[in-house]
Structure formats: C-alpha cells, structure tokens
Amino acid sequence: MFVAIIEGAQLSVCEKCSALGKVIKQVQSAAPREKKKTVSSARPMPQTRIIHVIVGDYAKRIRQAREKSGLSQKEFAMKLNERESLIQHLENGQSKPAVDIARKLERLLGIKLIEEMKEEVASGDDEEEKAPDTGTLTLGDVIKIRKR
C-alpha cells in the first residue's frame, strides 16, 4: 500500500496505481493474522442484525409536526424537496415512507419515525435474507427468474 499524490489529491493506492502519481510513502501492511481454530459446536452461534422499522402511527406524527411548524403541505414538500402528493399520501397513511425519506422527515420535523429492532440470525443459515414485508409488490415478486 502506498500514499501518493495523484492529480493534486493525496490517496492510498496499490503499487500499480502508485505509478500514476508521486509516491509520498509506502505503508507497511500488517501480516495476515492466523485464524484461531475453535471447537465447532452442533449449533451455530446466533448473530444480531439491526432492522429499521417505520413506526405504526407515522401518518399522525408527520401531520401533527407539520401543522405545529405552521407549514402547508405544499410548503413542507418544497422544504423537503419532494412532491406534494407524497406528503398527502404519507399523512393519509396511504403509503409508508422509505427509510431515507423517513430520515429526512425526522431531521426536518424533529420527530422519531424509525425504530431499530434487533433480530437474531443463526450464522451459517442457508436461507435467503428477506427484506421486511412492506405490503407492496416488487418486480421480484411478480417475475420468475429462470436459472440457466
């Protein structure tokens, strides 16, 4: 690993990429650690995964916080840089906000819309990880994928 100046930026790069600029220094990489051998047990150790869940009363919270701030749906949508129809659907409970939209709403309104839940997952499970059911169909729910 090398630290080099390439086109005015100081970057950590590999040996091959270091030829593209001026090398400042070479960084010594630590030797790979040996994995400790452990006695395998019949049961795999559970791992914890954090899932972000939108609260159930999100529509009420959004509407109350928006009204408290004195903004109309149109003004609020402009501040949020989203469509007014999205705000209407969220406040009516017709659609659930995606996590990124919920984070924007939390920052702008100063409310809590996302809860973190811990889920234990056994390591080594061959089951596919499934996204939380949002109640809406996705393209993957509709089509069948043919394996060649």
Task: Write a brief structural summary.
With 148 residues, the protein is of the alpha+beta class. It has six helices and five strands. The chain has a domain at 51-117: 434 Repressor (Amino-terminal Domain), CATH 1.10.260.40.
Note the main sheet.
Answer: 3 strands, antiparallel
What name goes with the CATH superfamily of the domain at 51-117?
lambda repressor-like DNA-binding domains
Number of strands: 5
Distance between the termini: 40 Å
Radius of gyration: 25 Å
Q: What class, by secondary structure content?
A: alpha+beta
Quaternary structure type: single chain
For this structure, the CATH topology of the domain at 51-117 is: 434 Repressor (Amino-terminal Domain)
> In order across it, which strands form the biggest sheet?
2-1-3
Following the backbone from N to C, one meets helices and strands in this order, namely EEHEEHHHHEH
Coarse morphology: extended
Strand content: 15-25%
CATH architecture designation of the domain at 51-117: Orthogonal Bundle
Q: Percent helix among the residues?
A: 25-40%
- Poorly predicted parts: none
Mean pLDDT equals: 78
Number of helices: 6
For this structure, what is the CATH class of the domain at 51-117? Answer: Mainly Alpha
Please, could you describe this protein's structure?
The chain has 148 residues and is an alpha+beta fold. It has a domain at 51-117: lambda repressor-like DNA-binding domains (434 Repressor (Amino-terminal Domain)), CATH 1.10.260.40. 32% of the residues lie in helices and 22% in strands. The chain has helices at 15-18, 58-68, 73-80, 84-92, 99-109, 139-142; strands at residues 2-6, 9-13, 22-26, 46-54, 114-122. The strands form two sheets. The protein has a three-stranded antiparallel sheet with strand order 2-1-3.
